[in-house]
Specification:
This protein has helices spanning 32-43, 49-52, 70-74, 78-83, 85-106, 151-157, 165-184, 200-218, 236-248, 251-258, 272-285; strands at residues 2-3, 14-16, 27-28, 55-56, 116-118, 122-125, 128-131, 137-139, 144-147, 231-233. It has 295 residues and is α/β, with parallel strands linked by helices. The relative contact order is 0.16.
């Protein structure tokens, strides 16, 4: 994937709080067995810290102050996104939100933009205080996406994804799929506490995968504020990287790796095959109407 070198990046859509020190108090556990469980749940995407039910007191130091607001200082052009991981996140967020703003308007609606908060270690959210162990997640209370960039290393080393820039883009686009669901009222369906292969929770996550694919299909033709597409190139290899990342975080893959057996009755996000299927459904159709996982 490649971005237009001369395109302007809108850093107002990404808030860089790396380096901030978060006060002590209620926080998602980051170490030991409970921390591993939180990591596994969080890495499945979309699980906010308030849903994990694993908390502890205490304070954690933030990152060094030198990293504070790095995104706002260095991510100015598309060329920066082609060269730096954090700037790539800015560009993906810009592209994803440009697409959904246009699509909502085409359908007669209004898209409310949501910022991504890039943090390190620990962060306060409208859904509670989270550590990096929670993985990337969307908080419907404050309508923000939260992301520690260290997650992408975990995606490769702990979950066996091949990685690549578009694997990162898939993660971001999936979380914005939850934002779309929140705006359309669909997200509330997953809050019934029921698990299993056919649960609303799984259907909600698969729909977010499908929405990520819809964005990918339309990304290279969606104009940015300059009138030209921000994302200029998306290859078959990029899509394979996205499909690989989707499979790596399937419930069955996670369970087989961490508990040695697969228990579909406890699934909350869907199998590797389902996640790939629905991402690809969105990508091949390019139409959010084809993402009705509840049908």
């Amino acid at each position: 994937m490649r971005f237009d070198d001369e395109a302007d990046l809108d850093t107002s859509e990404v808030r860089d709080v790396r380096g901030s020190r978060i006060p002590g108090g209620r926080a998602t556990i980051g170490g030991g067995l409970a921390g591993l469980i939180a990591l596994v749940l969080g890495l499945l995407f979309g699980v906010g810290p308030d849903q994990l039910g694993l908390t502890s007191g205490g304070d954690e130091p933030g990152a060094t102050a030198s990293s504070l607001a790095q995104v706002q200082r260095t991510c100015l052009k598309g060329r920066d996104a082609n060269a730096q991981e954090d700037c790539r996140i800015v560009a993906v967020v810009n592209s994803v939100q440009a697409y959904w703003a246009r699509e909502f308007a085409r359908r007669g609606g209004t898209y409310t933009r949501a910022p991504t908060v890039v943090f390190s270690g620990r962060v306060n959210t409208g859904c509670g205080t989270a550590t990096s162990s929670a993985g990337p997640f969307y908080c419907p209370v404050d309508r923000k996406v939260y992301l520690d960039l260290g997650f992408f290393d975990d995606l490769r080393t702990k979950f066996g994804s091949g990685g690549g820039p578009f694997a990162q883009a898939y993660v971001v686009a999936h979380e914005y799929g939850h934002h779309v669901q929140n705006l359309t009222g669909t997200l509330a369906r997953s809050q019934d506490g029921v698990t299993g292969a056919n649960s609303n929770s799984v259907r909600t996550e698969l729909q977010a995968d499908c929405y990520a694919g819809v964005w990918a299909r339309n990304a290279t033709t969606t104009p940015s504020s300059s009138g030209k597409p921000l994302l200029t190139s998306l290859t078959d290899t990029d899509i394979r990287d996205g499909l690989d990342a989707a499979a790596a975080v399937g419930d069955d893959r996670i369970q087989a790796r961490y508990q040695g057996r697969v228990t579909p009755e406890t699934w909350t996000h869907g199998s590797a095959e389902q996640r790939q299927q629905w991402f690809y459904q969105g990508f091949t159709s390019g139409d959010m109407a084809q993402c009705n996982t509840f049908r």
